[in-house]
Amino acid sequence: MKRLSFKHIGRLLTELLVLLAIYLLGTQLVAWLAWPIPGGVMGLGLLLATFATGLVKPAALQLGAGVLMAEMLLFFIPALMSLLDYGGLVRNDGWRILLVIGFSTLAVMLVTAFTVEMVCRWKVRHEA
After folding, report:
1. Residues 61 and 18 sit within 8 Å (Cβ to Cβ)
2. Parts of the chain with a pLDDT under 70
3. pTM here?
4. How far apart (Å, rounded) are the C-alpha atoms in residues 24 and 46?
């Protein structure tokens, strides 16, 4: 097991605080602007903007993001526990819900694949 140093722990906490600050800024912006989107989505947009502008390099937040990704299951437990409140819905219509999830996932994958293929072909034609 890797031994943690104070420098390593300090960097981890700093990265986690930066990610938390971006999330909180996103939730605050959504509240101020009264937009009907989750604050986390706005925070991800802000994070993307900081990466795209070069203000923050993705490697600068890699350690903190890695820890959050490793513990992602903890973030889904509340959502899974809420299924207990809707057990009847899942029992009666669960197969329909799974069918919609399956088809929508397949549709997203196909549209993404065809879009990437079209962009690659367009790029090859225009580079020549």
Report:
1. yes
2. 1-2, 76-80, 82
3. 0.57
4. 11
CB of 38 within 8 A of CB of 30?
yes
The domains of the chain are located at: 1-70
Q: Smallest Cα–Cα separation from 12: which of 57, 45, 79, 60?
A: 60
How far is residue 102's CA from residue 9's CA, in Å, rounded to a whole number? 41
Both tokens of 96, joined, read 């329909």
Question: Residue type for 33, please?
Answer: L
| Coil/strand/helix, residue 5 | coil
Type of residue found at 95: W
Three-state SS sequence of 8-76: HHHHHHHHHHHHHHHHHHHHHHHHHHCCCCCHHHHHHHHHHHHHHHCCCCHHHHHHHHHHHHHCHHHHH
8 A C-beta contact, residue 25 and residue 43: yes
What is the rounded end-to-end Cα distance, in angstroms, of the chain? 52
